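Q: I'm writing a short explainer about histidine kinase for a general audience and would like to include a description of its predicted shape. Could you first generate the structure from this sequence?
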Amino acid sequence: MSNTAPSEFNASVAEQNPDFLRTLNEFAVDLISIPNATDLFWYVARNVAGRLGFVDCVIYTADVETQELTQVAALGEKNPYGRTILNPLVIPFGVGITGKVALSRQPIIVDDLLNDANYIQDSQPARSEICVPLLSRGQLVGVIDSEHPDAHAFGPAELEILTTVAAMTSAKLELLDEADRSQQRYADLVKTHAKLSEEICSRKALEAELHDARRHEAVGQLTGRLAYDFNNLLSVISGNLELVEAYFKEPSSRRFLNEASLASQRATRLVSDLLVFAQRSKLTFSKTNMNDLVADLCGVSVVPHNVTLQLDLSPIDLVADTDVSAAKSAINAVISNGIEAMADGGTLTVSTDIVGRSTMSRLMLPRVLSPGVYVSVKVVDTGTGMTSDQIERVFDPFFSTKPASSGYGLGLSMVHGFMKQSGGAVVVSQNTPKGTILELFFPVQP
Ligand SMILES: Nc1ncnc2c1ncn2[C@@H]1O[C@H](COP(=O)(O)OP(=O)(O)OP(=O)(O)O)[C@@H](O)[C@H]1O
Ligand SMILES: [Mg+2]
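A: Of course. Here's the predicted structure. Afterward I'll give you a sentence or two in plain language.
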């Protein structure tokens, strides 16, 4: 066995093997378009070693973790057809001639295998063998091995040729490795960018929610204070009106007094609605079967002939802790809005469900809610829908797109105030392709 270091390329190699330079030139050109390591190994085994006069060539890849070589491409006996290796050998580093080359990272030529104790016979017995390492950035990545049925088949010329092929193969492997890494870096970058965008979006959404919550809080406080004072003044006004009514019996005076009294009643109702929005109403909580409440309410709802009312109640009993009469008013206000938004007809679906028990359904809870279990009452209509601008203002008191005579724009403000005061929430979103979804979350526990 001779352990031979590669010598400088010399002209005599090219003279001895006229195909050498042409094959190497073609190899250099083809290398550019070879897309991956597997194609490269097969190309080298067949098109390079084969055309350079080697009757056999097997390429092994090295695994430095397991310290093993595995056959990955071959020319000759090991590969009679296609790109399949018959019984691919796995050789530990240090074992056999290929294993020795893997360990020493130096090429080896064995002139006569009959005299070499390291020889591991593969599919066919051979007399001589040449093996060179494949190195990438100083690391062993594999070996190229060739055997010959005759002794003394390999000399310095073959070593020169195979070492040059190995160097070119290693250079391409480095390029492929770099391409893989830059592709991975690009993929990582895309992933990081997507994650960052997602975080920015969710942060913006959170900031918007916080801004909305603060705005409602401020408006609520001011409204609450005004409504409270107004309520006191109205009590004085209506009390005095009642006293005056006792003194003025003649019809002309009664008419004026009646109008004053009606106006004072409307003002009292308005002020009490504002107190609901400002979360200052008096609530009485009790365990309430929400399926029954919704069914009763829908049973007495007046629905136009061109609107279909669908009930989709949860099969399990849903008990929430709420104020029955205020909960009915809130759901009713949402149903009325849905019906009013479907002047040309449509379908209104009212469904109930339990949310917050499983990890998945916890994700469906609005962020404003504290963690817990809630009964959801969802009202979906196929009406006009709302613009995102309208959605933003829908809970503001006195926001209405309806004619002045139809409503004050307090319906959803009251729903918002009541739901918040009772530890729940109301959420609005667009129904696709058209319509609106309003979902009310009632806490199961107080
Ligand atoms: N389901 C819905 N579809 C389309 N728009 C809606 C829907 N619900 C509410 N809106 C819009 O939100 C506005 C505010 O609703 P809200 O219930 O607070 O007041 P309103 O219905 O106008 O008057 P009120 O309820 O005081 O009689 C409505 O005028 C309407 O523009
Ligand atoms: Mg309304």
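A: For your explainer, you could say: The chain has two domains: 11-179, 286-443.
Q: Perfect, that's easy to follow.
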